[in-house]
Amino acid sequence: xxxxxxxxxxxxxxxxxxxxxxxxxxxxxxxxxxxxxxxxxxxxxxxxxxxxxxxxxxxxxxxxxxxxxxxxxxxxxxxxxxxxxxxxxxxxxxxxxxxxxxxxxxxxxxxxxxxxxxxxxxxxxxxxxxxxxxxxxxxxxxxxxxxxxxxxxxxxxxxxxxxxxxxxxxxxxxxxxxxxxxxxxxxxxxxxxxxxxxxxxxxxxxxxxxxxxxxxxxxxxxxxxxxxxxxxxxxxxxxxxxxxxxxxxxxxxxxxxxxxxxxxxxxxxxxxxxxxxxxxxxxxxxxxxxxxxxxxxxxxxxxxxxxxxxxxxxxxxxxxxxxxxxxxxxxxxxxxxxxxxxxxxxxxxxxxxxxxxxxxxxxxxxxxxxxxxxxxxxxxxxxxxxxxxxxxxxxxxxxxxxxxxxxxxxxxxxxxxxxxxxxxxxxxxxxxxxxxxxxxxxxxxxxxxxxxxxxxxxxxxxxxxxxxxxxxxxxxxxxxxxxxxxxxxxxx
Length: 492
Hints:
With 492 residues, this protein is an alpha+beta fold. It is 27% helix and 24% strand. The chain has two domains: 21-91 and 322-491, Beta-lactamase; 98-318, no CATH class.
């Protein structure tokens, strides 16, 4: 990712080495030599870094503790909480899940095509699409009529909350900050293919045409690439600046889409025209405005009455939610995690972020996690408002380990040195293939929480959170944390 978001490498929360004594672990929480060694490893991180650590047995015995109750920005460790509630409610969520639908709406002597989103994260219009394809719905429309007026993207399955509180506006242009919508297509990403040109000339660009591209990139000698993208919120103009080396292989760049329902309707219009259907009108959207009653605190326990949908001309199968949660945690996929939270929220109420927050609080209470130890404003970890303590993370992981679906959930986590966002970490160490954990990464924030197997064969629960690293030093903090975890695994 660029500047403010990297979901590549998780670091763990370990306590500030200069923290006052009262913030440190009790002397008997770990053998003194081990605690000292871990502190020494963490001291190798850049000055100013703040750490918090908690390591326990599966039975809850504390083995090592450093500032376990301090609160940290968790970044994508947030996805642990979102997918945990997804698994806890999976039978109900899958039972009520629906796929994307399409219908014809007649009025004023003309026919509109209405595309209905139901929170499916996997809808695709790729040329090689095999399942969950927008082309299937285009075929159904083309078989019914040869002329339509407007193409309408309807994402009112959820209220219109495309970004959660605390989302940095400068991330919106990136694929990591794309809008969240019940009508999601192609991960709500615009693909731009760029190839270097002649020295001093602009590179060539290929894209769908949904966005206009201002190409101000210059081709220079060498193999370096330094391309920056700028787009104002709700604008459909991307300005590309910087340089690309003449020896760089063609690049595939991906950028966020602010109004996914509009994009999906626009793309459906393209597919209909390719099938010989004449489109006489415009691309339109139907959003459901967020209102006060979308907040469960305002409703005070009352159920939400959502309008019934008309019959569909065609519908795609409901998406496989458990399979998608593997992608959420392994890849740290932001959009899909946000959609999971909205699905939980719609089952609980209206589909709002506030309903999702209430559902998470209910789960955490059930897990015995103190409400003062966490705050969530989104489902993915992109919000800078989110906070957790190492104790909150370990409390959740401990509760998960006692659930009938615990191993299925653990299988969604990246494996050290093997796959996902941990593929390149812990290689050649005692923890390669023996650490299963969710990573997290935002500016000056790194997190790693999960399970590990020690040299003695014990399975432990751990959470390491790191915040406040100086700019440009995240990788150094990550390396220090990795070394500390290896020391813990070797000693315990």
